[in-house]
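Cross-check.
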Amino acid sequence: MADSELEADGVLSLEEGRLQQAALDLLAGSDIQFRREIRLDIALVKNHPIALVFLPAADIPTFVGEGRVDLGITGIDQVSEHESITASTEDTGAEEVLDLQFGACKLQVQVPEQGSIRDSRGLIGKNVCTSYVGLTEKYFAKLESEEQGSNNGDVPTSRKLRTKIKYVGGSVEAACALGVADGIVDLVGETLCPDDDG
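Predicted model, tokenized:
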């Protein structure tokens, strides 16, 4: 949807999910006044010539990177994952312009406590589930390269991984208990909780 169709000079995208309330609080503190109708993903701001678009977190880097929205508020994990699987060009790409200091999570490799695997290297050649396939593949490519003694600082891109990376869109932590994975790569931190929809 083009900016002119929204009758706005700029478009700001906000994620629907774990960072949404913090982003809404930031907007309220910035005197950005809007009303979002139920089940609508677009809201016009009352006191500024901008529109807000509510998108899934993983979609924001794509819309920003292709210039369809001017600015997005989402986690750096989403930007990093997008950039790991989508090469930036002169006309595309998303980058962090400001750390808003909320959503203090980090991407972490995890294995079952009662299992025999004690560190990330123990997962080489095993099944790993994640919602962050690009970053996980890059991480295990580096580990595998180091294990083979061929690490010159670069991450190999043409060699097939021995580690099997599987995409799981939600409930990543259930993958080991259900026998789908030997380990997972998932977000951990203050915004990750059992009732989190994001």
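Helices lie at 3-6, 20-29, 60-65, 76-85, 133-147, 174-177. Residues 191-198 have pLDDT under 50 and may be disordered. Passed to J.P. for a second look.
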